[in-house]
Predict the 3D structure of the following.
Amino acid sequence: MNSKAVSETVGAMLVIFVMVFTAGIIYMMSYPTISSGIDNINYRNAVKTMAEIKELVERMKFGSEVATIKTIQLNMGSIYTSAGLNLSFNLGSVNVKRQLQNLNIEVSGRIVTLESGIFEKAYGEVIPIPISEPSVIATNDTVYFTFYNFIGKFSAGGSRVTMSMRYNATEQFNATKLEIEGDFCELWKKAIEKMDSSILANSDCSDRKIVVETALPREISILIVSIEVS
């Protein structure tokens, strides 16, 4: 065999090896940045999707829409219902308890939740600033709360999911005392303080609960919008 040809072959193989090795090193160095970029894109898509879902259920709340089908790009995330708020309020001398369900999109270690506002957990920890505020409005004679209750044991995952939503009912209750218990207690507390801190009878969230209380003729109006998801 011609020694020159052998030399050229070995040289070419060495060049290829160096190129492959260098490409591998570059990929390993840039992988965290690429991965972080993909995670951020998936997270932003989850937030955008949840904002669109909130707009849909708000239309249902006011009777503008009865049922709809939503196609969701999850990019290997998941969407599901889960136990949400526990509410306790008085109707005259009767104490009423209700457990509501939230709708969640989980992607890249983050959970985006629709409860009343849009809230977030990152790696199990509640983010102290809401994506959108909970629905609390205070006037001189009434404090209005809106809650969403997503009915059904719904769970789906993958890249592309189709979810059906159907309006079930809107219930309205008038009370003078309301207890809100849930993981996002601090976000509810902050929203109520912005409206009227004087109605917070108990603002200690160490037990995940706050208590809102008014004195007649001022009342608390509680609106619970139930949506079936499948």
Observations:
- The chain has two helices and twelve strands.
- The chain has a mean pLDDT of 85.
- The first helix runs from residue 3 to 61.
